[in-house]
Amino acid sequence: MRKNIGIAKFLAVLLVLFGNIWAALAVDSYTVTPSVLRPGEEGAITFSVRNVLPAGSTSTISPLENVQVFFSASEGIVFRAQSPFVIGTIESGGSALVSVPFRVLPNAKGGTTTASFFISQKDKSDLKTVNAIIKIVNPPIITLTSDRQSLLSTDVINLTITNNGGKAERTTLAIAEGSGFALMGTSEIYLGDVSGTMNIKVPLDSRNVKEGLNSIPFVLTYQQEGGQAASETKYLSVVVKKEKADVIFEQSEKITTAQEDVLKLKVKNIGRALEDFKFYLEDEYIKAKENKLVRLGNLKSGEEKEIMIAVSVDATPGVRNADVTLKWIEDDVEKEERTKVPIFVESDSDVAIFLDAKPTPIIAGGEHTLSVLVSNIGSYKIYNVEVNLPQNEVLELYNAQNSQYIGGLDSDDFSTVQYKIKVRKEEPGVYEVPINVRYKDKSGSWIEKNQSLKIVVRSAAEISKKENGNAAWLAAGALVVVGALAYWYFKIRKKGRASPKI
Q1: What are phi and psi of 453, to 5 degrees?
Q2: Would you say the pTM of this structure is higher than 0.85?
Q3: How far, CA to CA in Å, does 432 sit from each of 388, 425, 453, 454, 460?
Q4: Which residues contact 67 (CB under 8 A, 6 or more apart)?
Q5: Which residue, 240, 317, 406, 499, is the most exposed by fewest CB within 10 angstroms?
Q6: In this predicted structure, which of 233-247, 267-281, 453-467 has the lowest mean pLDDT?
Q7: Strand 154-175 vs strand 318-330: parallel, antiparallel, or unpaired?
Q8: DSSP for 418-482?
C-alpha cells in the first residue's frame, strides 16, 4: 500500500514538471461582423487565443510569450491593421481577444472570400491557423423606364433596363399574376446578362385592366454574383386608355317595366371600319331572355345595323344606363370595350276609374253627389294625381272647381273625390260622362287618361210608379196580414166559447 502511494506522488511531480515545460496554445472559433457585407462596407473578424491547461492538470503551466497573429491580403478585402498583430504574453489559463478590422473593396464581386490568420509564439514551432470565410453580396441595382406614359388595351412599349449594381446573369422578365396585365404571345422574355443599360420591346395586353392609372408588376429573375438565384418585382406606373368603338346607339322602340319585351337598338359606326363586331347585353335589370350576344359582322364606316334582343325588364321606369360589352377585331387583335347604353324604360302605370252616386238611382233633372274613385293598378307609385270632371251636356257641376287633387297613390291603392251635380237630361237613358285623370309616373313623365263612363239616368215618373207599385203591394200585404190576424182572433174566441165549463 505504501509502495502505491509513493508511485502516485512521483507521477504527480512529473506532471507538474511537464506542465511547466509545455504550454498549450488554443484558438476559439471566429465570428465575422456583420455576417454579410456589400462592397465598400467595413467589418471585423474576431477570435480568442487561449493558454489552456493540459487535460487532467491541476497545476499552472508556463505562460505563452511573444504571441503574434500573421495575416495577408485576401481577394476583395483589405485589412485595416498591420501584420503581424502582436498579442504579447498570455498567462497560464488566460486568453486574449483578437479583432482584426477590414474593408470590402468597392469592386469586390459577390460570393465568399477566405481570410487566413496564423497564430504562434516567437521562436516556437507551435502554430495555429484560422480560416475566416467572409460573405460578400453585390446585388444588381435595376431600374426600369418606359418611352410611354399611357397604353392602349394592347400595345408595345420600349422598355429601358439599367443595372447600376452587380451582375445579373440569365435574367428573365415576366409579369406577376393577378395584376390584369400580361405579355402578349409569351409568358416571359429572356434578357440574358444585364449590366449597364439595355433596351427591349415589350408587347403588353391590358384588356383586363381598369381604365386609368395602374402599375405594371414586372418580375425580374436572375443569378447574382456568386451564383445565388434571386427575384425582384419592379413596378412601372402607366395610364391605361381603352380603345373606344366610334359607334352611337339609338333606341328604336320603348320597353316597359315589369314585362317581357323586345329591345330594339340602331347602331351606327361613325369611325373606322370594325371587323367581326359583337354586342353583349350584360345588364342586371334589363336581362336577355335567351342569348345576350348579337353578332353584327363587319361594320363599315357610316354603316348602320339593328340589334334585337328579347329581354325581361326589371328596371324602374326612366332612363337606364344598361351595361354592355363591345368586341371587335383590329390589326388581328381582339379589342374590347365595356360601356353603357342609355335605354328608356316606360312605366306600366295605369289607373282604373269608377263612378258612384248618392242618392241612387240617378234621376233626370235630379241633384246628386257623384263619387269618382281612382285606383292605381300599375307596379309603381304614381304622384300628383288630379281628377277633372269637365262641364258637359249630361251633368251640371255645383263645385267651385272642376279639378280635385288626390296626391300620391301606391300600387293597388285608391282614393275618391266627390262632386255636387245636377242631371241636365230630362229623358231617361244611358249617357257617357267624360272623366280626366292626370298624374306623374315613376319616370317623372306626365300621363293623362281620358275616359268616358256610362251612367244610367231614370225618370222621376218611372221611379214614382215603381214606388207607388211598391206601396200598393205593401198595402195589399198589410191587408192580408190584418185579415189573417182577424181570422186568427175570431177563430180563437169562437173556440173559447164552445169549451164546456168545469
Answers
A1: -105, 140
A2: no
A3: 15, 12, 5, 4, 20
A4: 25, 49, 86, 87, 88, 89, 90, 96, 119, 120, 121
A5: 499
A6: 453-467
A7: unpaired
A8: EEEEEE---S-EEEEEEEEEEEE-TTS-EEEEEEEEEEEEE-HHHHHHHHHHHHHHHHHHHHHHH
